[in-house]
Amino acid sequence: MSFTTVVFYILSAILLLAAFRVITAKNPVHAALFLVLSFFTASGLWMLLESEFLAISLVLVYVGAVMVLFLFVVMMLDIDIEKLREGFWKNFPLAGTIAIIMAGEMALILGSPEAGLHTYPARAPLSADFSNVRELGVLMYTRYMYATELASVVLLLAIVAAIALTQRQRKDSKAMNVSEQVAVRAVDRVRIVKMAAAPVDTAATDEDQPQA
Amino acid sequence: MELLQSYLGTQLGYVIWTLLKIVVIVAPMMLAVAYLTYAERKVIGYMQVRIGPNRVGPLGLLQPIADGIKLLMKEIILPAKSSKGLFLLAPILSIMPALAAWAVVPFTDHLVLANTNASLLYIMAITSMGVYGVIIAGWAGNSKYSFLGGMRSAAQIVSYEIAMGFALVGVLMVSGSLNLVEIVKQQGHGFAGGSILSWNWLPLFPLFLVYLISGVAETNRAPFDVAEGESEIVAGFHVEYSGMAFAIFFLAEYANMILVSAMTSLMFLGGWLSPFPASWGWLGAGSFFWMAAKMSFVLFCFLWFRATFPRYRYDQIMRLGWKVFIPVTLVWVVVLGAWMMSPVSLWN
């Protein structure tokens, strides 16, 4: 067994375990962290396939950004775990049957001779100067250009929609406008009044002195 | 390496050789972190007309060692209702990315542990994981102060990461590579013949500023240190930590500072390239000396910022990140694209 095969089995075992714990962990924060672990090991598997760009972007996008926001929300929510677990055993037979059917289907598809997985040749190792990023870029911006553009338009639309949803502002909100605060000048806030100094009566000031 | 391989066989020899290289990078790093804390106290001390640490050893030079020993001797207290496993995992998660990122950082054009094609992406991915240490530390301690600190920090890091990423897009556009060695080499030639003026900081000046300031925000340093706003939330996300677990958060923070300074030097200040003409002997040749000098300069700026600026208010931080930096970088990326396609492009 070569080194990569050993790494593959170790990563797969961690991935399966983490994925299993995502759905069985009692605490939602723990579940989210197990999801992070499974993303990370999945990116390790991609790294074994020499697709380092996809592996790194999986970590960058899902682990670095999406899951952080997810964790953010999960930590703030007060989730009643008992309520979530209610009716688990009642629904278990149906859910279990569906799971078994799905697993069986997958096994049948992948294991059938028509799938031809056993004849699928192992990919030749890539040369050292092969650039994943370049290949992906060339494909995305030539062959799949329209699909890429379409996807980006849809994403842009989603961003605009999300921002539009947050544009509503509560009338009683006391939030301050930072730009206005930063732009403020002393002239707007302080009025300096120049007064002529009045002559001072020396006898009066002596009496005004506080007693030591 | 041949010697090791002849004794231990090809594969094991290679593994041991790589481990040795990792030790050679990490050990000076830890020393640098220790003395960065000393430098910080001294520099800020002099800026505030004090002399800083001066009791332990000559000029107080043994102060970081004394601090380290003190923290090692202290007990690590586990809060009663904390999530114990995560509580102990959090410091590890915060120091791990800070050290792992150094795997691809080149110190000179051949002094690099792993010269990969996607090294810049790797650094962005690994450093984006650092936020987990902070969030988990904030949550696992089961304290409201630390939780607030963790939340603040997470929101801040996620926001500034976007501006940072866009600033790097500009660098990628002009260098046409994700490889840090290539990025530095590209700065070595260009319109001003590879001198200090052709480094990325000048043509990409807005991106340079955005990157530097976002770097300060990413590492939770003053004036962006709301995650540990003492006057509001005691000490922020690490309020429940003691002893070495607490010290590891500091190690991670300073290691991240050094990392950001290395990245700034590599991407905008020409890395190991020399600012002087090649005829000046060793001063004119690119070497680790120049890399270290540039990193020290950026680190000094970090300390200088801390001594100069008062802490930002939280909504001001968010505004700066989302409403100033992201538009600035987006516009500059478009301008840069047009510039590169125009006849006056500097990058042909």
From TrEMBL, chain A:
Keyword Translocase tagged: no
Claim: RNA-binding is one of the keywords in the record: no
Primary location group: membrane
Annotated compartments: Cell membrane
Keywords, alphabetical: Cell membrane, Membrane, NAD, Quinone, Transmembrane, Transmembrane helix
GO molecular function terms noted in the UniProt entry: NADH dehydrogenase (ubiquinone) activity; quinone binding
EC number: 7.1.1.-
Biological function: NDH-1 shuttles electrons from NADH, via FMN and iron-sulfur (Fe-S) centers, to quinones in the respiratory chain. Couples the redox reaction to proton translocation (for every two electrons transferred, four hydrogen ions are translocated across the cytoplasmic membrane), and thus conserves the redox energy in a proton gradient.
Family designation: Belongs to the complex I subunit 6 family.
NCBIfam families associated with the record: PRK06638.1-4
Name used for this protein in its record: NADH-quinone oxidoreductase subunit J
Protein species of origin: Paludibacterium purpuratum
TrEMBL record, chain B:
Gene name in the database record: nuoH
UniProt name for this protein: NADH-quinone oxidoreductase subunit H
The UniProt record lists the keyword Ligase: no
Entry function: NDH-1 shuttles electrons from NADH, via FMN and iron-sulfur (Fe-S) centers, to quinones in the respiratory chain. The immediate electron acceptor for the enzyme in this species is believed to be ubiquinone. Couples the redox reaction to proton translocation (for every two electrons transferred, four hydrogen ions are translocated across the cytoplasmic membrane), and thus conserves the redox energy in a proton gradient. This subunit may bind ubiquinone.
Cytoplasm as UniProt keyword: no
Enzyme Commission identifier(s): 7.1.1.-
Topology within the bilayer: Multi-pass membrane protein
Subunit field text: NDH-1 is composed of 14 different subunits. Subunits NuoA, H, J, K, L, M, N constitute the membrane sector of the complex.
First-level EC class: translocase
Catalytic function, reaction form: a quinone + NADH + 5 H(+)(in) = a quinol + NAD(+) + 4 H(+)(out)
Gene Ontology biological process terms from the UniProt entry: aerobic respiration
Keyword set, alphabetical order: Cell membrane, Membrane, NAD, Quinone, Translocase, Transmembrane, Transmembrane helix, Ubiquinone
Family in the record: Belongs to the complex I subunit 1 family.
GO MF term (any one): oxidoreductase activity, acting on NAD(P)H, quinone or similar compound as acceptor
Compartments it resides in: Cell membrane; Membrane
Any Gene Ontology CC annotation: plasma membrane
TM ranges: 12-38, 86-108, 120-141, 162-181, 201-220, 241-268, 288-308, 320-341
PANTHER family referenced in this protein's UniProt entry, alphabetically: NADH DEHYDROGENASE SUBUNIT 1, NADH-UBIQUINONE OXIDOREDUCTASE CHAIN 1
